[in-house]
Structure prediction request, 319 residues.
Amino acid sequence: MDAHETFPYGDIPDLSVRIAGIQFRNPVIAASGTFGYGREYQGLLDMACLGGICTKGLTLHPRQGNTGIRIYETPAGLLNSIGLENPGILEFIEQELPGLRELGPVVIANLSGSTVEEYTEGARLLAESTVDMIELNISCPNVKAGGMAFGLEPEPAASVVQPVRKVCDKPLMVKLSPNAPDLKAVARACVAAGADALSLVNTFQAMAIDIYRRKPVFQHISAGLSGPGIRPLALRMVWDLWEAVKVPLVGLGGIAAAEDALEFLMAGAAAVQVGSATFAHPPLMIEIIQGIAGYMQDYGIARIEDLSIRGTSSFTVHN
Prediction:
């Protein structure tokens, strides 16, 4: 008797998930900073099959990004120091968003800034657009705090989320930094300030040295580490936060196969984001979706939330 005969819910399991009132056709989302604004990957995979697309980081005003080396490969991932190069929110809304909407998946706008005022005005503009959800990246340097990221401590994190919440009626997902000394405290502060969901984790602070030039590789010394090397750390953080907060969690960090995504879903994540692995293999997200569906068929699992090994999933209860 094969898996199709033993599967009690029909041949195709239900891969859809609902996060903060938004329906995703499946739990696989293209991560910010690795998928551009969608059009960069057209022709390389069937965009309509994705659960969602998270835009490259957007700021209120255009940014040129960092100079010098911006990407550096490591044995277990990538270091990046892009510097939030982007055309600005108004240009995105006018030039990129219409085409992005036509692709089909849920559209999540990743919002960054250097001051609370920039975040708030950016959120107001995006809230008036047709994006489905805002992902608030609080890992950016806080200019008023001398360059420390807003997301490293609970109070600065809440100081961004709260005013953004007041001007934004879109679902608000806050992207957390793994570099926070007490990630649970930051997560709780974000939820108390109005976050509908949390995505984690952003890149780990790291660096590399060019031994032939005897200098750091990056002009700003440190950079963000992503890729398979951070996956066990990111998974543990998702596991920890599942009990700490009662909002949906979107897990990311080093996911490069369906098995990796299943780990995050079993740890309690409502969905996953796939990032740097798509650079090497653009169709990867489609393969991950197919792999999740195949696993669910083989084990007779009807719905995505039934994959969790944590009991009643927080994102099932708190929509």
